[in-house]
Design a protein that fits this description.
The complex is a heterodimer of chains A (505) and B (360).
Chain A (H helix, E strand, L loop, with lengths): L5 E10 L2 E11 L4 E5 L6 H8 L7 E6 L2 E2 L5 H6 L2 E4 L11 H7 L7 H14 L15 H13 L5 E5 L7 H16 L3 E6 L2 H7 L2 E6 L2 E6 L6 H9 L16 E10 L9 E9 L3 E5 L6 H9 L9 E3 L2 E2 L5 H7 L1 E4 L14 H9 L6 E2 L2 E2 L1 H14 L16 H13 L5 E5 L7 H16 L3 E5 L3 H7 L2 E6 L2 E2 L3 E2 L5 H7 L12
Parallel strand pairs in A: 3-8, 3-9, 6-7, 7-8, 13-20, 13-21, 16-19, 19-20
Antiparallel strand pairs in A: 1-2, 1-4, 4-5, 9-10, 11-12, 11-14, 14-15, 17-18, 21-22, 21-23
Helix pairs in contact in A: 11-12, 12-13, 13-14
Chain B lengths: L1 E5 L5 H25 L4 H9 L1 H4 L3 H27 L7 H17 L9 H27 L3 H21 L35 H19 L1 H11 L1 H7 L3 H25 L13 H11 L4 H25 L3 H23 E5 L6
Antiparallel strand pairs in B: 1-2
Helix pairs in contact in B: 1-2, 1-14, 2-13, 4-8, 4-9, 4-11, 4-12, 4-13, 5-6, 5-7, 5-11, 5-12, 6-7, 6-11, 8-9, 8-11, 8-13, 9-10, 12-13
Chain lengths: 505, 360
Amino acid sequence: MTVPLLSLQGLTKAYPGVVANDSVSFDIGEGEVHALLGENGAGKSTLVKMIYGLVKPDSGKMLLRGQPFEPAEPRAARADGIAMVFQHFSLFDALNVAENIALGMENPPELRDLAARIREVSETYGLPLDPFRTVGDLSAGERQRVEIIRCLLQDPKLLIMDEPTSVLTPQEVDILFKTLQKLQSEGTSILYISHKLEEIRTLCDHATILRLGKNVGECTPAETSARDMAEMMVGSTLQTPERGSREFGGVAMDISGLSVPAPSAFGTALKNVHMTVRKGEILGIGGVAGNGQDELLGVLSGEVLTDADAVKLHGQPVGRLGPTARRRLGVLAAPEERLGHAAAPDMSLTENAMLTGSVREGLEKNGFLDWAATKDFAERIIKAFDVRTPGPGNAARSLSGGNLQKFVIGREVLQDPDVLVVNQPTWGVDAAAAASIRQSLLDLAAKGAAVICISQDLDELMEISDSFAALNEGRLSAPREAAGLTVDEIGLMMGGAHGMEVAHV
Amino acid sequence: MIRLEKRPQPSRAWSMATPLVAVLATMLFGGLLFAALGKPPVEAIRTIFWEPLFGEFSFYYRPQLLVKGAPLVLIAIGLSLGFRAGIWNIGAEGQYIMGAIFGAGAGLAFYPLEAFYIFPIMVIAGAFGGWLWAMIPAVLKTRFGTNEILVSLMLVYVAEQFLASVSLGLLKNPEGFGFPGSRNLQSWDAAHNAELIAGTGMHWGVVAALIAVIFAYVLLNRHMTGYHIRLTGEAPRAAKFAGVNPTRLVLFCLGTSGALAGLAGMFEVSGPSGQISIDFNVGYGFTAIIVAFLGRLHPVGILLAGGLMALTYIGGDIAQSNLQLPAAAIQVFQGMLLFFLLAFDLLTNFRIAIGKPEVA
C-alpha cells in the first residue's frame, strides 16, 4: 500500500465551550484532490489551520509521507510543502502584484527576477497576470490568482484552498478548475474546502464530510448525488423551499437612471441602474462581491439619497426620503453586515428590534418609546423565526451569525413590507437556517410583497428568484426571467471572466 | 500567560462594580503616594473622604459639597449626551464662562431695578450664552466637517479673553474703585441666586442639576432622541440605517451641553461666586469631563460621581491645610481616580484569562 501524502489521525481541538474538531482522521493521497465538506461551524477552518500550523491540536497526530508532522507555525508548514489560499485575501491594495508576492517571501529575489518567475508560473498554469499591475485595480478573481501564484512559487506538495469560488464568476471558476487539474496532473495534492456540492462533484476525487467537528462520512463525489452529500452535511433531510405559483401585480418599485458616486476611495459607483420589481416578484441580483451591492442597498433603504425620481415607489418619487420615511411607506431593508449595520452589537435584541421597527410597529409615541411593546415585538421575532437565544434581553453580539441573521430578516419580514431589500440574506448561515430564511422570503412574495434579493450565492438566487440581474462594476444588467437561464448566461451577465482570457492549457 | 478575553456580552455586575473598585484602588495607591511624601496615609485618606462629611466642621463643608457638586453634575450631564454619541465637547469651560457673562450681563442691564422677572431672564440668557458658544463648533462641524474637539477647546481660551475683557470694560463695576470685575450680584436681591434653605448650600443650580439628571435619564431611556444618541455611539452605521440624522444629532448634543454649561456658569456667577471677574472660572468645565466618565456617562452615575468629585475637592483642600499636602499631590490623586476607572472599565467587556492564547 502506498503511503499517503498527509495522514490525519484522531485530531482533536477544543475551544472554550465548543469542540471544533473531535478525533478527525482521514488521508490525502499523492496527486489527489480531496474535498472537505461541511456547513459553517462544522470545523473545516480549524482543521486546515492545524495542517497549516496556525493552530496546535490538543491531541492526535499528523503524518507527512509517513513522517511525524507538527508544524509550529505557518512558516514551518510552508517549508514542508504545504501552501494555503485563504478565503480572505491578505494583499495590499496600493502595491503591485510582484511587490505583494515579495512581501510574503522569506528571501525575495530582485523584483525583476521575481516578475519573470511570476510570468513563467502564470503562463504555465493558465493564470495570466501582469506582475506590475496595482492590486487595488484587480478584480476578485485576479486577486485570487495572486494568492495562488504566491503559493505555486513555493512549489507546494499540498495546496489548501478555502472556499475559492465564492468570489468568482462561473467563467472564472472554469479557469480555476483547469489550473487545479493541471496541478493535480503534475502530482500536487489539493485539499479543497467548499460547501458547493456541484463543483466538488466535478473536481474532487474524494470527499470527507464534517459535521459538528466530527468526520461523519467519506464518499466519492462523482458517484454520490449532491442531495445525498448535502444530507450527510446537515445530518437530516433537507427542506427545499417551496415556491408556490404566484401572480405578479403592478410595479412596486421602479429604479431608473440611477447613478451614485462612490462613497469612498475603494467603494463602487453605481452607474445608470435601471430595474423594476412587481408585487409578488422576487428579483435576484447576483454579482461578485464589491461590484456595488452595498451601495445599491444603501440607495434602496434610503441611507444614501438620490434624485427624487431615480427611485419610485408605486409611481411616487422617494429618492429624497430617508430610511424612516421609506419605512413608513413600506420599504424595508436588511443589510449584509449584521453586526454594526443591521444591528448594534452591544445592544439587546429588544433595543435592536426598535432599530427598524419603531415606525411600523407603533413602538414610538410623540418621541417616547414603548419598551414593553418593543419587547413583545422582539419576542415575536424570536418565536416566529426560531432564533436561538435565552431571551430578548441578550446582546446582539452574543448570538451566532445564523441566529442573528434570522432575527434581522425576521424583524423586517414581520413588519409586513411592501418592498423588502435584502443583501446576502444567508451569508454564513447554516443550511437549515438558510432554508428557513429563503422560505420566509418566498412566503412574503406570495403575500404580494416585492422582494429584491442581492446575493453572491447563485444557487440561492436560482432557487428563489423570478427574475435575475447581475451587478458588475456598479452597472446592473437588464433583468431577465430566471427560469431557463443557463450558468453560462448568468456568468456573462456577471461580467464573464472580467476580461481575463481563458488560457489554453 | 495572562491575557484578556472578550466577554460574549458586557458584564452588568462589573459595570456596577468598577467605580467602587476604582475608588478603592485610588485610596490604596493614593495612600502609598502620600506615604512616599512622608504624610500619614490613613490620616490623609480619612481627611479627604471622611472629614467633609462627618468631621468636626462638617456643618460648614456639607453645604460646600452641593455648591461644588451642582455645576459639575449640570455640566457633566450635558457632556455625557454628546459623549454617548461620540460627539466630543471639550469646551464646556468656555460655554460655562459665556453663560456666566450672558447671564450676569442680562441681569446687570436692569440694575438697580428690583423685579421678579430679572432672575428668570438671567437664567434664559445664561443658557443661551452657553448654547451660542457651543453652536460655533457644532455649525463648523456640520457645515465644514471640522473637528469639534479642537474647535470647542480653542474657544475656551477665546472665552477666557472675553471674560477678561468684560471684567475690565463692559461689565466693570462703576463703583468698584477701578478694580476689575462686575457689581456683586449677591448684594442685589433681584439677581441673587441665594440659598433656598439657609445653611444647606441648596441654590437654584442644585435644583437645575437634579432636574437635568432626571431629564437626561428619561431622554436616554424613554425617548427616541436618547435612543438615537446611544445607537450613534455604539454603531454609527446602524444609526444611519435606523434613520438618524447626524447633523441634527450634533446640533442637539452640542447645543444641550452648551446650554447646561451656560446655566452652570450663570448660577455660579449669581450665587456662590457673586461677580464676573478675570479669574471667575475655576475649571469646572474640564473637571466635569472626568465626572461624566466617572459616572459612566449614566445620569445617576454622574450624580454620584459629581458628589464624589466635590468630596475629593473639599477633602483635598482640608488635607492641604491640615496636613500640608501639596496641591499637586491632590491633583495626582484625582487623576488616579480617572485612570483607575478607565482601566477597570475594561473588565466590563473583557475578562482576564490565565493560560495559553488560542489562535482563532
